[in-house]
Structure formats: structure tokens, C-alpha cells
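Workshop exercise sheet. Pairs work together: one partner reads the sequence aloud, the other fills in the structure field after running the prediction. Swap roles for the next sheet.
Pair: D.N. / O.F.
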Amino acid sequence: MSIELKRGEAKFVQGCVASFAREFERGVVAVLAGELRGIEPPEVRELREQLHLLQRQLEMRGEIRVHDTMAGLIKRVLASERRRVAEELERPLAKAASPGVVSALNLQIKRYDLLLTREPFADARMQAIPKLTDFMSIRFAAEAMPDAPRLQPRVYDEKFHILEAPRLFLPDLAYYRHECALRDASIAVCYIDIDDFKAINERLTETVVDLKVLAPFLELIEAWTFGHGHAYRFGGDEFVILLPNARRDLALAMIHDLRTRVARAKLRAKDVKLSVSQGVCMVGPECAFTDREILAHANTAKAFAKKHNKGNIAIVEAPAWTPVLP
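Structure field:
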């Protein structure tokens, strides 16, 4: 059995493989050689040989046929390169004002998405890639990566000074994605919206709501998140929670618990009972999306939950990446 690729597709994948191989050489092969006195583990050697063989198959003239055992490796390469390129495009996308320019930039990402969602890559299991922590302890692996993201000093929401400032979320997510990848762990990002908040504001006035509703609500969120992750205030009634090292079942159990605590909360405004709609995005070590895309997925899941029934929870995760009610 073989995978048939058009000439243009093969050339595109070939470029992805070359870029992936360079990063693997820099981030794994060279580091291990320096830290372990030139030793190359057999798993590392095998992957290098696989990448070289894949490159040769993609360079063949005439009809391009790649052995179907390469599907998982190609999927892993495409996912890794998609994330890298998408992150590089975020800055020019933020600057672009012309719809044509925005469309042209997004087209660069669409090429990856089209391949990742077609057969046989859509159903292929991503091939596991050797990482530093397969051969070194976590502490020494982290020390060998001086360019890795660092957790920034804490800054708090300017109005209430209870939850963390929203500008910390993206660098925090980058840090925890790196750290969790070293440990083969997942992350949960939860987007939270207070139901019917506008009606509460209109009935009680903003000043009263800030003092008697929002402040105790934020304190509840902060107390619940303490020791588990980070909570950020994104706006008047929108909040984001970051839960590192949380599997799907653990994340959902925690989010259900938070919803229950909010419903039972005794606020300073005695006649107010709150409910929240929550969207959860599960982020695995191999996730191809950028940090901003992950936040957008969590927001989309929150909107889906609210649309189906206020007070609901929706989750978005691989491989479908479409919101569902768990």
C-alpha cells in the first residue's frame, strides 16, 4: 500500500520534512550529543533515518508514492510545521489591514489544514517523536533548553486586583505547553461567561454589581483555582482559566465542580444567583494550533454551550475540533 501525492503536494511536504528535520537536529540531536558525550540513542537514529528515507521518496520523479507506514510521521511533521508557521504569521496578520493580504496570509495555513484533514492523514495516528526527556531527567532537559519560555512575574487585573491580568494568558499558555510537552501532559483552557450578566447590571447598577456580585465572584474563582492553575479576568463578565497537567476527565470534573460552587455561592447581593456557561479546549502535546487559536476554540465552545442552554459546559478537542456537550 502507498500514499499518492500530487507533485505540488509532494514538494510542499518535502519542505515541511526538511524544516522539521532541521529543528529536530537543533533541539534534540545536538543537545543530546552535547549533554551525553556524543551518544545517539537508537530511537533518535531511527527517526533521522526515517526522515531521510521520506525525503528520498518525496524526491522521486514521475508519480509520487510514499509508503503508507509514513502516514503517522507525515501527520506529525505537518502538525508541527503548521503550528510553527501559524505562530510566525500572527504578527503580520495583526498588522494587515487589507482583506486580500489577510486572505493571502491565511492561505499559507490552509495548505496544512487541507492535508491534515484528507485521507490517509486524517485518521492516521501521529507518530511519537523522541524528546529530550526520553533520555534525560526533566530538570536537566529543561536546563539544556535556555530559549524555552519562562513564567513571567504576576500582574493582576487593574480594576479588582483579584484575578491575573489577561495579558499574562498567552505567555503563560506558551510556558505550560512547553513544560507539559516535556512531561507528555495535557492542558485544559476554560472560557467562562456569566449568564444574563447584562440584566443583573441593569437591575442593580454597575457600582453595586462590582461591590456585591463581581468582587465575591472573583474571590470564589481565585480560591477555586489556587493550587490548580491560573485565572484571568478578560472583561466584565468573561474569564479564562488555565489548568496545566489536566487530562480530559480531570478537567471536566473540576469544571463541573466550579459550576456547582458558583450556583451555590452566597453573594453580598442576597437576591442574586449566578450561573456560568463554560467552554473547554483540551490541548495535547501534539496540538497543531497556536496559543491564540486555542483561546479562540475555548471561546467558541463557550458560545456553543450558552447557545444550547445557559449554564452548560461544552468541550472542543482532537481530532474533530468541533464543540460538543460532554
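Discussion prompt: Residues 7-35 form the longest helix (29 residues). What would you look at next?
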